[in-house]
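Narrative of activities, Objective 1.

The group set out to show that a structural description can be obtained from nothing but a protein's sequence at a throughput compatible with the screening campaign. Below is one input-output pair from the validation batch, recorded exactly as produced.
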Amino acid sequence: MLTLASLKEAFKKLFNFVKFYIKLLLGVTSGSIVNSKTTCEPSDAITASSTLIQMNQVIHSEHVNKCSVLDGGQLLKWVDICACLSAERLAGRPCVTVSVDDLHFECEVNIGQVITLKALVNRTFNTSMEVGVKVICGDLDKATGQKTVCDAFMTFVALDTSGKKIRLPQLLCSSSEQNLCYSLASERRKVRISYSKTLKSLLSNYKLNSLLSPSEKTQDDFFQEIVDGEATRVQSVELVLPSHANHHGNTFGGQIMAWMENVASISAGRLLLGVASLRSVDMVYFRGPSTVGDRVVLNSIVNNVFRDSLEVGVRVEAYRYENGFIGSSRHINSAFFTYDIPSDAHVPEYIPEAMDGERRQREAAARRKMRLDRRYILSKRRQDRLSVTWNDVNAVFLCYGNIQYLQRLAAFNDWQTVSTTDTMLLCIREEDDVLSFKATLKMAEKYKAEKIFEILKDPRKRAKWDPIMISCRLVKKVSDEDSLYHSVMHSKAEASALPNDFVLLVSDRRPSSDNEPYRVAIRSVTLDQIPPTDLCSRTEVACAGFMILQEDGICTEVVYYNETNPKLVSYVTCDVAGLSGLYSHVLGCMQNYFNKRSAELK
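Output recorded for this entry:
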């Protein structure tokens, strides 16, 4: 007979069972709790292609300035929206902007033109993801002639209903271009992390001329009058409305950047006495969110003026009314905008304001050097200068560029086969008078890819298998993955010719996912401590390196790439006609070296 007590006991057991089962489904059992900052959400892997978002916009009068050119703030807003939509397609949750990498605008967009924005998630990092956005523009009445406006890289995090970050699903790449973006995303992440450290190093270790050089300042046609920096200070207060925010009520990062560019352009216009054209935006990092109902305060001022550009700094803070009083102010972010100075402009001489004006002027000069270094190193037009001076300021850009160029060289699919055997393949590629070689060694034995990588990543071991190598010594270990070497190699031009010496940056990277190749990138750098001598002929390498392809940890192919220059032609001309020349010999020596150590490589 059922009693009230027995019914209560039965319901209690049923309730406990249901409670336990729900916890089990959520992955929360006894002794395990969800992290207070990160929510764990099981999810299947998502393909990169499924995150593609495309936007098209016709430029109307409300989008342009008085010169009929697309407003920079409007463009920043569209870029952020497009990237956010791509991030949310991967996460299935509202996403917020964490940071925006340096942006450089290649061309202006005029009224009546159409811009196309394409966003794609490049990579996920536990709780954050990198989204790449490519912006191009063209005319409605022309099917061709589209120009690249900018390439943007932005970092997002996804939030659950309580505003906590969630762990993101794995990203799967289905094309060589997606694999390239995936690999380079980790390199860009290193640049972001080291940005502030690099700036501090530049300010502390280098003497910077914050103003123009004396020779430039004597040009009477440049400076017409003197302007105090305080005269360029601008403040604007914006109320965050629901239309400015996402699903959670957090202000869109693009909206904040649009407001920032607005006040920055006013500051620049006050100095130039006209409309300023936005050229670039330095890395932006959002320190905290602003929400609907916040009052956003934007302060801008010209930091420094250079020959053909000027920098404007913007600081963003937010506050709310609490119990009838103005609440504490919160620092949202700071950013630095670079504007072009027209060639015919009459620019007054800029004098920094009192207090911290000189500090900001020095920092602006440091950021300019970093911008120029980065563009110089990562420029695609590299045949006119192969070697770049190494220093602590541009080190992170050189390491990033080293891996980037090898990845891009490997990603080309228009290689032409010139010779082949059962185990070797030689291909060439020509572009803009630059000849590149690709030599592939097909592995007949099942050697562990990691073992092959350990041999090829250290050029000092190359003398054991490469008959051309004379010597190699370590100059500086930059990090666990990047080192500087000085190597000497036999010259193949003439028997009596001096040997060639190289100062090389070698960057090695292990795979970050299954079946991704091991990479060893090589490029020349210039070191003051190793000047050219009469004993050797100093030679430079634009881009070279090894890709060690693998399947389940077993090496399938070793591919060597080399982008040549005139001094290296003597090494490779004999190989174009057949694989019986230098590459055949060197790859054969490499294969023999592996075979002799077969037991330790398996």
